[in-house]
Design a protein that fits this description.
CATH class of the largest domain: Mainly Beta
Strand order of the largest sheet: 1-2-3-9-4-7
Structural class: alpha+beta
Number of strands: 9
Strand content: 25-35%
Radius of gyration: 16 Å
Helix content: 10-25%
Distance between the termini: 38 Å
Order of helices and strands: HHHHEEEEEEEEE
Length: 194
């Protein structure tokens, strides 16, 4: 698997969803950009799927819209999932696939195919308890709460989703990673979020 040109930004599906949420909340591009701390030109490009967005930036846009990132996903519709449904949580030079259906609330499984140098493009936290990561191919550089770890083929680790974490592929070859997030990312923002 390699990152296809039509999915190169990953925002081709997510951007229009963000635009629809913005319009439903009667926010202008200028208003939402200001709330998210980005330029209106960048937001306009993101909504049209014309630029990559880091994971932290996508999460800030979701927060400014008062939506959970899980509300942007397209979920598998069948109990047997063949290869996963493409999803985008932000990041650069990668493709991601959701492997669990909407009905699974206890955990969420995703696979990332990360090209050389690709990754999250910054540290972030998620609205979940734990993250398990397993390297299926290549190598992953993972920083959790300021501690950097290199995970090789077959290595795994578990950490708190609420700890800031950042990751990327340090190799000159493709890396494949399996992520398990528990519980599954919510479809709506929790009212306890700030």
């Amino acid at each position: 698997m390699s990152v296809s040109s039509e999915r190169a930004t990953g925002m081709d599906d997510v951007g229009p969803k963000l635009r629809a949420f913005r319009i439903s909340k009667n926010l202008s591009v200028t208003d939402l950009a200001a709330k998210a701390g980005i330029t209106k030109g960048f937001l306009s490009l993101a909504e049209r799927g014309k630029t990559r967005v880091s994971v932290p930036t996508l999460l800030r846009i979701c927060e400014a819209l008062d939506i959970a990132i899980g509300s942007l996903f397209t979920y598998p519709s069948e109990p047997v999932v063949h290869g996963g449904v493409p999803l985008y949580m932000g990041g650069d030079n990668l493709e991601e696939y959701l492997l669990t259906p909407l009905t699974e609330e206890h955990f969420q499984v995703m696979q990332s195919v990360i090209q050389p140098g690709g990754g999250s493009q910054g540290a972030y936290t998620l609205e979940a308890d734990s993250i398990f990561v397993l390297v299926l191919a290549g190598q992953l550089s993972l920083e959790v709460a300021g501690k950097i770890t290199t995970l090789d083929l077959g290595d795994s680790t578990t950490f708190s989703a609420r700890d800031e974490h950042n990751w990327f592929n340090p190799l000159a070859i493709e890396t494949r990673v399996l992520w398990v997030i528990a519980p599954a990312l919510p479809l709506r923002r929790s009212r306890t979020d700030s």
